[in-house]
Write a structure and sequence with these properties.
This protein is 10% helix and 44% strand. It is globular and about 25 Å long.
């Protein structure tokens, strides 16, 4: 089992909010939003955990987005 699969299994197989961006890896599927409303879904391209920033490539529009944890909740979505 790969470390990513083990991490997904540890997370319980459902979307999990992660405050520590160091847990995100390039290619991870995530969703982000505010007040329980999801605005963005995509794959992680890069992170700056010390700054609370993650860059994703949106699934819907293929746009690159910079998301800050002060503005959005960000959840990891385990692969099926």
């Amino acid at each position: 089992m790969s470390s990513e699969q083990q991490r997904d299994q540890d997370l319980g197989g459902s979307p999990v909010w992660l405050a520590d961006l160091s847990h995100f890896r390039r290619g991870d599927q995530v969703e982000a939003g505010q007040n329980d409303v999801v605005y963005y879904r995509g794959r992680v391209e890069d992170t700056a955990a010390g700054l609370g920033v993650v860059w994703i490539r949106e699934s819907r529009h293929s746009r690159r987005r910079m998301l800050h944890t002060d503005e959005y909740f960000i959840r990891h979505i385990p692969e099926p």
